[in-house]
Recover the amino acids of this structure.
C-alpha cells in the first residue's frame, strides 16, 4: 500500500534499488546530494546534477523537464553516506517562473523498479522559494527510510547547498545553472497541438481529480453553510498546522484564450492550466444518488485528501464547522425574532390609545405570532441541517481509525501497532445544547504542539462532584490520554514519565504500571521530582544545541530519540523554585524537540507562586475530567461543551490495548 506522506513524516523502504519520480507543471531541475552521518555534503563530488548526473549508486536527469526519473541503488553508495537528499530547483535565466508560487504543487514518488509506488509526497505551501529539498533517504539502525522534507529556499540552489555545508556552494550553483541553460538552448520546442488534440485533452481532463486546494474550495451540495477554509479544533495551531489538503484561497482561473474555445458539445475544462499536470489525490468515495427531493446520503471519507485518514480528518473538520455555522444562523434568527417582537410590543405600549382594549390585544397577538413564525422557520432549517449531520456522524464514527475513534469503537478490536504516526489524536468530544446527542470528535494534530492541562480545580464542583472525586477523574482522564498516545505511535517511539510526588495516583496509574509501558516507575518525593525534571531538561538542551548547530546526528548514543511525555500529578506538591522553573522550561521549549507535558492540577493549589505561573497555564491546552463548556470554535466563537474520553463500563479495551503496546515494545513492533 502506498504511503501518502506529509511534511516531516517518514516511511521504511522495503528495497534498496529504487526510482524517484518527479512530476511538476513546468520544467524544473532535479538533483541529489549525498550527506555524511551529520548530514553534511563534503564536496562537489557528492552532488549529482545535470552537469554531473552520475555518482556511485545515484543517477539524475541531464536537463530540466516537467517529469523526472532518478535512479538510486542504496547498496552501491559509499559507506560514509548516510543520507540522500532529492533537490528540485527552477531554471535560472531562461524566462521561466522565478518561484514555485507560479507552479502546481510538485509531486514526488519513491517507487520500486517495477513501478510499484512505495511512498508519495506533494510539496504544498511553497511560495517565494526557487529551490526545495523534496525528500531525503536516510540510514537509521542499518535500515533505510524516506522522509518528506519540503524545505524551501528563496535564495535558490546556492542557499540550499550552503545550508547543507558545501563550501563551494555558490560556484557549483552557478555551474549547474549554466549547464541547465545550455541544455535548454539545445532542446527543440515541440510543435503546437492541433485543435483536435486540444479537444481531446479538454475532454480527458474532466475525469481528473482535483488538487486539494481546488477541491477544498468546491462547496459540498449537502453543506450549504460550508466555508472554503477550515481552521482546526480548539487548541489547534491554526493555518500553520493544517494538513496537506487544507484549503486556502485559490486564484481565479485565467481567462480562456481564443484557441481554447470549446465547441458546443465539448464540456468546458475549468482546471487552472498550471495545475493540470499535478498528481491527483485518490478520489473520495461517493454515495448512490439520493431520491429526488431528499438530501444526499452521507458517506464516510467524502472530503478531499491524499489518504483515507486525511479525508476522514477533513470530514470531521467539515462537520465541526457546519455545526458551528448552522447553529449560529439559528441563534441569529431567534435573536432577530426576539428583537422584532420587542420593538413591536414597545410600539404598542408607547401609544396610550393602544395599551388597553381590543386593538392592543390584537397587536400583541400579531407580534407574538410573527415571532413564533420566524422562530419556527429557523428551527425547521436547524433541524434539517442537524438531521443531516447526525446521519453523517452515524456513518463517519464507525469508519474512524483507532487514533480518531472513541474507546467504544469496534476499531480497537483490530488494533495493531502502527508503522507511522497518525495525523491527529482524539482528546474527547464536543457538542452544543441545540443537539446534545450530536458529538463531534475533538482532534488535535500530532506531534502535539502544546502541552495538556487536566484541570481538577474546585471551580468544577458545580457538577455536584466533590474535590476528591474530581482529582481521581482527572488522573483517570490523563491515563486515557497517555494510553491513546502510546497506541498511536510506533513501538518504542513514545515514552511516558510520571511524577506523582505524594503517591496519590497509585490506583489511577495501575493500568500503565501493570502493563509495563512507563519509561520508569512513577517518581515520588522531592528527589524523584528533581531527577525526572533534570533528565528531561538536559534532553531538551542537547537536542536544541544539536539542531541549532546542524549536528542532529551527533547526539549521544545513549540518548532516547523517542517522543517523551511527562505526566505531573498533584502539582506543586514536591516542587521547589528550581523545579518550577524547569517545568516552565519544558512547557515552553519541550514540544519543539519532542518533550511534552501533561499537568493534572488545580490552579488554586499553586496560587502561592502568583503571576509567575500564568505563562505556564496559558501554554497548555485546558481539558476537564467532567463535561464543561470552556472551549470556543474559531469561526463564530460558540461555547462548546467538552466531553472527556471514557471507557465503557466493564470494558477491557484499555487493558488489551496497553498489553499490545507492551508486547510491541518488547518485540520491536512485531
Amino acid at each position: 500500500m502506498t504511503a501518502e506522506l506529509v511534511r516531516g513524516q517518514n516511511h521504511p523502504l522495503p528495497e534498496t534499488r529504487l526510482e524517484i519520480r518527479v512530476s511538476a507543471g513546468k520544467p524544473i531541475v532535479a538533483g541529489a546530494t549525498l550527506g555524511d552521518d551529520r548530514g553534511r555534503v563534503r564536496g562537489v563530488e557528492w552532488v549529482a546534477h545535470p552537469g554531473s548526473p552520475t555518482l556511485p549508486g545515484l543517477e539524475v536527469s541531464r536537463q530540466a523537464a516537467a517529469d523526472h526519473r532518478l535512479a538510486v541503488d542504496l547498496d552501491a553508495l559509499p559507506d560514509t553516506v548516510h543520507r540522500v537528499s532529492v533537490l528540485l530547483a527552477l531554471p535560472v535565466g531562461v524566462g521561466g517562473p522565478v518561484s514555485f508560487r507560479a507552479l502546481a504543487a510538485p509531486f514526488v514518488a519513491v517507487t520500486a523498479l517495477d513501478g510499484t509506488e512505495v511512498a508519495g509526497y506533494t510539496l504544498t505551501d511553497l511560495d517565494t522559494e526557487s529551490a526545495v529539498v523534496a525528500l531525503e533517504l536516510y540510514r537509521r539502525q542499518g535500515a533505510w527510510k524516506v522522509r518528506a522534507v519540503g524545505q524551501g529556499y528563496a535564495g535558490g540552489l546556492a542557499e540550499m547547498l550552503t545550508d547543507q555545508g558545501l563550501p563551494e556552494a555558490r560556484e557549483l550553483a552557478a555551474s549547474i545553472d549554466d549547464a541547465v541553460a545550455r541544455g535548454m538552448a539545445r532542446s527543440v520546442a515541440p510543435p503546437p497541438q492541433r485543435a483536435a488534440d486540444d479537444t481531446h485533452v479538454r475532454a480527458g481532463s474532466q475525469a481528473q481529480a482535483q488538487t486539494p486546494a481546488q477541491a477544498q474550495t468546491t462547496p459540498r451540495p449537502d453543506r450549504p453553510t460550508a466555508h472554503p477554509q477550515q481552521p482546526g479544533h480548539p487548541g489547534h495551531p491554526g493555518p500553520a498546522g493544517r494538513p496537506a489538503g487544507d484549503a486556502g484561497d485559490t486564484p481565479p482561473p485565467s481567462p480562456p484564450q481564443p484557441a481554447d474555445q470549446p465547441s458546443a458539445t465539448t464540456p468546458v475544462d475549468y482546471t487552472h492550466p498550471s495545475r493540470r499536470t499535478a498528481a491527483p489525490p485518490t478520489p473520495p468515495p461517493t454515495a448512490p444518488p439520493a431520491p429526488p427531493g431528499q438530501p444526499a446520503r452521507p458517506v464516510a471519507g467524502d472530503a478531499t485528501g491524499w489518504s483515507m485518514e486525511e479525508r476522514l480528518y477533513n470530514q470531521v473538520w467539515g462537520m465541526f464547522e457546519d455545526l458551528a455555522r448552522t447553529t449560529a444562523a439559528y441563534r441569529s434568527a431567534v435573536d432577530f425574532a426576539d428583537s422584532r417582537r420587542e420593538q413591536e410590543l414597545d410600539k404598542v405600549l408607547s401609544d396610550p390609545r393602544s395599551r388597553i382594549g381590543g386593538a392592543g390585544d390584537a397587536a400583541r397577538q400579531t407580534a407574538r405570532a410573527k415571532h413564533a413564525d420566524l422562530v419556527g422557520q429557523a428551527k425547521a432549517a436547524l433541524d434539517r441541517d442537524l438531521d443531516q449531520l447526525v446521519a453523517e456522524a452515524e456513518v463517519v464514527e464507525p469508519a474512524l481509525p483507532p487514533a480518531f475513534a472513541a474507546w467504544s469503537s469496534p476499531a480497537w478490536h483490530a488494533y495493531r501497532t502502527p508503522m507511522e504516526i497518525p495525523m491527529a489524536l482524539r482528546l474527547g468530544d464536543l457538542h452544543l445544547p441545540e443537539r446534545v446527542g450530536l458529538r463531534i470528535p475533538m482532534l488535535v494534530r500530532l506531534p502535539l504542539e502544546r502541552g495538556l492541562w487536566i484541570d481538577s480545580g474546585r471551580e468544577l464542583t458545580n457538577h455536584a462532584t466533590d474535590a476528591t472525586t474530581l482529582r481521581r477523574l482527572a488522573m483517570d482522564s490523563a491515563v486515557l490520554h497517555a494510553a491513546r498516545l502510546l497506541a498511536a505511535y510506533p513501538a518504542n517511539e513514545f515514552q511516558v514519565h510520571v511524577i506523582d510526588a505524594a503517591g496519590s495516583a497509585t490506583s489511577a496509574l495501575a493500568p500503565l504500571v501493570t502493563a509495563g509501558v512507563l519509561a520508569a516507575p512513577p517518581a515520588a518525593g522531592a528527589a524523584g521530582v528533581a531527577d525526572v525534571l533534570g533528565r528531561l531538561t538536559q534532553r531538551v538542551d542537547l537536542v536544541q544545541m544539536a539542531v541549532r548547530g546542524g549536528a542532529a546526528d551527533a547526539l549521544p548514543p545513549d540518548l532516547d530519540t523517542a517522543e517523551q511525555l511527562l505526566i505531573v500529578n498533584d502539582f506543586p506538591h514536591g516542587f521547589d523554585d528550581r523545579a518550577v522553573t524547569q517545568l516552565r522550561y519544558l512547557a515552553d521549549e519541550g514540544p519543539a524537540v519532542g518533550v511534552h507535558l501533561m499537568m493534572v492540577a488545580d490552579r488554586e493549589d499553586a496560587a502561592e507562586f502568583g503571576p509567575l505561573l500564568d505563562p505556564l497555564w496559558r501554554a497548555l491546552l485546558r481539558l476537564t475530567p467532567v463535561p464543561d463548556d470552556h472551549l470556543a470554535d474559531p469561526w463564530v466563537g460558540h461555547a462548546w461543551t467538552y466531553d472527556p474520553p471514557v471507557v465503557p463500563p466493564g470494558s477491557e479495551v484499555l487493558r488489551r490495548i496497553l498489553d499490545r503496546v507492551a508486547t510491541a515494545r518488547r518485540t520491536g513492533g512485531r
